[in-house]
Amino acid sequence: MRFALPLALVLAGPAMAATPCGGDFGAWVVALKAEATANGIPADTADAFFAGLSPDARVLRADRSQGVFRKSFLDFSQSLISRDRLVRGRALADQWDAVFARAEAEYGVPRGILLAFWAFETDYGAVQGDFETRRALVTLAHDCRRPDLFRPQVLAALEMHRLGEFDLDTTGAWAGEIGMVQMLPGDILARGVDGDGDGLVTLKTSVPDALLSGAKMLQHHGWQAGQPWMQEVILPDTFDWALTGLETELPAEQWAAMGVQVRAGTVSNGIPASILLPQGRKGPAFLIYPNFRTLFEWNKSFVYVTTAAYFATRLTGAEPYLAGNPDPALSVDQMKALQGKLAALGHDVGAIDGILGAATRIAVQKEQARLGLPADAWPTVELLDKL
Fold first, then answer.
1. Is 196 exposed, middle or buried (0-12, 13-18, 19+ CB in 10 A)?
2. N or C: where does the chain have the smaller number of CB atoms within 10 Å of the terminal CB?
3. Rounded to an integer, what distance in angstroms lies between the CA atom of residue 211 and that of residue 198?
4. pLDDT tens for residues 364-384?
5. Contact indicator for 174, 129 with CB cutoff of 8 Å
6. What is the pLDDT of residues 316-330, one digit of tens each?
7. Residue 178 DSSP code
8. What pairs with residue 328 in β-bridges?
9. 261-262 vs 272-276, strand pairing mode
10. What domains, with CATH codes, occur in the chain?
11. Which UniProt keywords apply (predicted)?
12. Given phi > 0 = left and psi -120 to 50 = alpha, else beta, which region is 377?
């Protein structure tokens, strides 16, 4: 049976104050080790876990250069979704049918969603990352960019090691995620599922453990059983583009009354929904339900989540999207210039990073409306010039 220290003890560290970030790395590790032992971790376990660690410059470079998310939705989705991935995903759905059926029965998460993240995170388990997880987590916890996120993850990985579920040579993604669906140690401790009944939660080697743990995590973050997440739609030419975007929710049947047509099936009456235009009014259009928003708990990238949600619909029978003919995407330099102008006007766009994230899209739409442009949240050279 799996016995863990209380999660609040592992993650919050009440016995000692949280170890501050930065400063001398060796001294910081000594302080964090003392914090861990004060919270119930055996000294020999902590000594073995922290032995020989040093900062990983490759992790820090990866943390500061996530250029793939600068791609447009069409470019990003076409680079991740291939016929081979579709065929393999559908074959795996059949191979692990009982596990997917259990995930939906117990946690309400359909197979398409789990398959999409399994595919995108690790190519169905084949590419799980070659970063040493201990070193990656300790590097990011010591770095002062996001210590509040990563310091608890170090302690969670240490607790997993105490349980026999984390080998010291465990490898994974640069940000410390582990296994076929790439979950952080804290999530594994809190919501890991022993899907194969061997008494351990091992997301690197056990498909049932990985898929059921991912399903439980999504349920925890609010996934609603039996509800949709995305449907492709066709909008009338006279549509009010200012109503699009995740900021506006209306009952799905109200969108239908405004002329929104679902390409396949019908709208889900009684459920709030939004209209999403990943590349503006000339590109694909989707009706987005609350379950879509839950996916941001798995990955914060707008283009990643939109692509994963779309791929999940493809895996469960949807036709390819109508790509349309969107206006050209801004270059990275142009996007940074636009973000700078938006920030100067008082909009919160987050980092000036050249990535069209949710905050930048909201600011773009507001300025489009102010300037009398079609307010579809897709930045163009025309908008940049007018600003």
1. middle
2. N
3. 15
4. 999 999 999 999 999 999 999
5. yes
6. 999 999 999 999 999
7. B
8. none
9. unpaired
10. 7-52+129-178 (no CATH), 230-315 (1.10.530.10), 332-386 (no CATH)
11. Signal
12. left
